[in-house]
Amino acid sequence: MAAHVLNPASSEEAVVFGVEGRLVGIVTPPPAHAATGAPRIGVIFLNAGVVHRVGPSRLYVTLARHLSRSGFTAFRFDHSGIGDSQPRNDHLTFEQSSVAEAIEAMDWLAAERGCRHFVIVGLCSGTLTAFRTAQADERVKSVVLLTALLVDPSTVPAEVVQEASERRIARSYLVEKASSAAAWRKIFARRVDYRRIVRVLRRLIAGRVKPPTAVPGSDVLVRELQALLERGVSLQFIYAEPTTVLEWFRMTVAPAIPGLQRHGRIEVHIIKHADHTFTRLRHQSEVVQRVATWVRQCI
Question: What is the pTM of this model?
Fold first, then answer.
């Protein structure tokens, strides 16, 4: 039985839910005058690493309240052991428990708020949980992936990490530092590995990009994304540039995007000059607008 605590300053409500009543979340309901279709779609926000349910720089709060005004039921909750949620007393791995808890969040919204379908929003490490939850539960109709690394970081080969990192550094000179005399002086003064940067810059400028099969596991990941699209799940990717994760995406999934678009609704947005978690207000505003437009199209 969920416990409810109403915030008198707003319509947001703190709830305790889950099989053992160990999880804590904040539900932001739509206004009473909202369209009847939207409240049947619940938007669930997953922890970005150990950042609790407000999200990095309170991005989740802003997004949840914006979406609720558009007629959706938004739900921000903490996985066990994060924020106000109690630790688990079983032996499930985080990979297992995080998906189970996301499903418990859907169960609560279905029982208490009448939601039939769900949009799952993840940022950074939360994108992997969002991806796995969509694979595990057919009630998920859309996934919003902010700075997505859709594999366990510990499984990414060291050479792939190095290649992505070098690409990020090289691209930063193209995207951010092209007009920075100080940045280029570091290269000429050999305070950075200029040979490596120049080598990668040449590859980027020449447009030589590794195919998806060049990175181990890429073909499997692309097939998994295709399976979701064929099931009717829509996928939105939003990345900051320059970041290492974006370069990983370009080395793995990006070459397959044109083919994937034949199987369903998938789009990719890149926000230039942003950091990994979209800290600046102007970048957060762009994220909010893009996500809100995407979710409204789910109705």
Answer: 0.86
